[in-house]
Records
---
Amino acid sequence: MLHYFQNVLEKMPTIHDVAKRLNLSITTVSRALDGYSDVAAETRQKVIETAQEMGYTPTLAARQLRRKRTETIGYIMPTSKPRFSDPFFSEFIAGLGDEANEHSFDLLVSVAAPNQDMEVNAYQRWVQGRRVDGIILSRMRTQDWRVQFMRENRFPFTAFGRTLIADDFPHIGVDGKSGVQQLMQHLVEQGHRRIAFITAPEEFTLQADRFSGYLNGLAQAEIPYDPQYTISGDLTRDGGYRAAKILLGLPNPPTAIIGANDLTAIGVLTAAHELKINVGQDLAVAGFDGIDESNHTQPLLTTIKQPVYECARLLVRMLINLINGEPISEQYILLQPELIVRASTLRG
Amino acid sequence: MLHYFQNVLEKMPTIHDVAKRLNLSITTVSRALDGYSDVAAETRQKVIETAQEMGYTPTLAARQLRRKRTETIGYIMPTSKPRFSDPFFSEFIAGLGDEANEHSFDLLVSVAAPNQDMEVNAYQRWVQGRRVDGIILSRMRTQDWRVQFMRENRFPFTAFGRTLIADDFPHIGVDGKSGVQQLMQHLVEQGHRRIAFITAPEEFTLQADRFSGYLNGLAQAEIPYDPQYTISGDLTRDGGYRAAKILLGLPNPPTAIIGANDLTAIGVLTAAHELKINVGQDLAVAGFDGIDESNHTQPLLTTIKQPVYECARLLVRMLINLINGEPISEQYILLQPELIVRASTLRG
DNA sequence: TTGTAGGCGTTATCAA
DNA sequence: TTGATAACGCCTACAA
């Protein structure tokens, strides 16, 4: 049992075996299988049958080496240990995987915390080792070394989001600023004046975007900015919970709290409930992302929805176009997120 | 811009380039870089420096071909389109990725709905094309063609869960039966007699396991089985919601509802809230999995926690042992899940 | 329509 | 301690 698998690789039939069995050259077998037109219908038929029968499948490594192409795209989850279960990622990966499938590409996934040595290594290995044909970037940072790295290596990539210092690379952005502004307007219409914001880490572009929507919203409503209503979060439920505890303990607590993402807002709900605060009635809470969970909280969570799954698919499509040297219609795309008002920001 | 990337692959330095620059043979360069002992310290030093300087990294495809090893493990998310955002998967993948990293393995991910042609194709391509050295299986089915397929191909794999017809392959199981039994006991102690169960699709082993825990629990409490209290779910929040609506509309509705997983139970919470039922007080609700979300529902959800992240890591460790032909300590491991009692099953 | 042969970039065997 | 050379399995000019 122990050495059960030892020599599995030695035993697979190669194109030579198929050729030999048929008394054909490997050329013909190769061409027959790849659907070239200059092979007799009868021959092709026989080749396909025999290959099938022998259980022959091309060795991908050999093909990759020869074609100088891996038919693989890479994605490194920018996540910290020990673990991280933001539903954003499973949805994003499902989108990447589905779209890659449709183009017969594989998806290589790794995990690395942002801005660590490990992360640099991971990207280097893939790029310089030609492990993948292109890379998808997400959770962009305000100054993102990855963009420069990809460019220096002239390596195909697309990104979900931009950096603050550059946006002239193929990416899809979601207009976080405008999204939060809409939300602010909604809150102001509901009569709120003391509106708090729980941030994401500053390194992320999404923080800059969403926070500027907050500031703009305040300005438009002529509400002076009050720093005590801005608290740091970390995009997790627990971060939101802790921040909310601080905010709600203030002498003059906010009547509305915006989380930088849904997870943060959900942490706020937990804190509010613990403090027996009636969300909706006495405290408005809203998030950003539109994850499924936001539609099953109590009360249902007002949020700004971005189409993560579809973005992932589009990013892959753009990337594969780049890889193939085909034109992509636009350099980048800016999507408008959708404000979804639910009970958590409505009174009574 | 358009053809920007075209020839990127042609331009990377190869081991030949490094050798030429140093007037050494490729053999020496290769051995120096791989840390063989039979190369002069001075030579090695120079080789490493030059390689670094020229930005040389071995082409992985060539290495794979030569070594007959990809240093890659595969995982196919058994998920249905258009999308699926069970947090189980991001946690599982994070575990797979982290552990693979530590062994310098890559993780190849794909997406395929269970028991579809696409799924068979995906596995075949990877196995027969030696795309990966081993495969991780999850969401096992009661009769799982994948197990037989892997065996026929003598391909290394480990699985999260077993099948009903075989468990003599390397896997980690979580004792769902015992978990649910504990939960049942807890519910009975709370005075419940009309306890309902919302199932997972029958094809999954986890359904058989958890449901048998339910039946056992009833038997132990001498509660006769009443089929009207068993309703089909699909492991999603919406499935749980729909099933709960039916259950709670019964002339003699249950006083406790168990979801086959946490997502299902969360759907029940949503339904209960819509019907203004006070969960905890008037209705007990519990799930299975122990996802983060269960700790942020309202009320907090009683659940049976399984260590998904750790299981994923362990599965990878076992798999890599198999790949290396090393002994694995046990053929399979059965873990006991942990009952976590929270407010959703406690009165007052 | 089919076959010959060279090479993709490594690693590994063997000899120097 | 180093080097020449032969694979690994596939694709593709080019020739037949």
---
Amino acid sequence: MNMNDRRLGAVFSALADPTRRRLLGRLAEQQSATATELAAAEPVSRQAIVKHLQSLDEAGLVASSRAGREVRYALTPAPLEDAAGWMETVGAEWDRRLARLRGKLEAGK
Amino acid sequence: MNMNDRRLGAVFSALADPTRRRLLGRLAEQQSATATELAAAEPVSRQAIVKHLQSLDEAGLVASSRAGREVRYALTPAPLEDAAGWMETVGAEWDRRLARLRGKLEAGK
DNA sequence: ATCTGGTGCAACCGGTTGGTTGCACCATGT
DNA sequence: ACATGGTGCAACCAACCGGTTGCACCAGAT
């Protein structure tokens, strides 16, 4: 149970929710926004958005900073790399296996 | 609404669970296995594994086929590409935004 | 015909999750 | 000083999730 694996799970489960994905998309274009701003464009309450931003924060995909009386959230896409890395690993293993199989077939023909 | 977005969510939430990730890893090395086999190597019951395999199947990450009286599961990693694609999009948008910002700063110095 | 091992189905359980509402708390502009 | 708009905190809810157990079912081997 690597802490790394924990992080990976947090990232994937953060990305699992459509609202959260929309929020990330929004923050990718807009660099920073408050929960209230984001909630205005979403069909759910501000509190719901806050919770979503919290889980995005736990996954390290977003960072919050106070500016005056408002709290602005910004995208920090680094953990996406970890996630992509894991998927690549699985894919690579799969390809290696395929290559081995192809090799055997080649040898046995 | 998009069936595509639905699929994306299914993939990410499939990858969100550590047991499911382990199963995928296993199937990447082993090409095919039954639920009972997989359950032997995991700390949970066969039924739990079956459920996991079902959600992996819904995400399109795994395919099942009957061989005699047993059901073998195999990895079908194609949907990983979709997931990686989405992440890449967010990352790319982010980069474009950074580039624009850099441009403005450059122009205004 | 019957024992056996792998599957499938269904009920059940505790914990998490996405969502809500209500209200108290601050920082700011007038 | 005070009204205001953005936050934070907490309780509550229905639905879902990961997991279990018990049992019926079905294909093969004896």
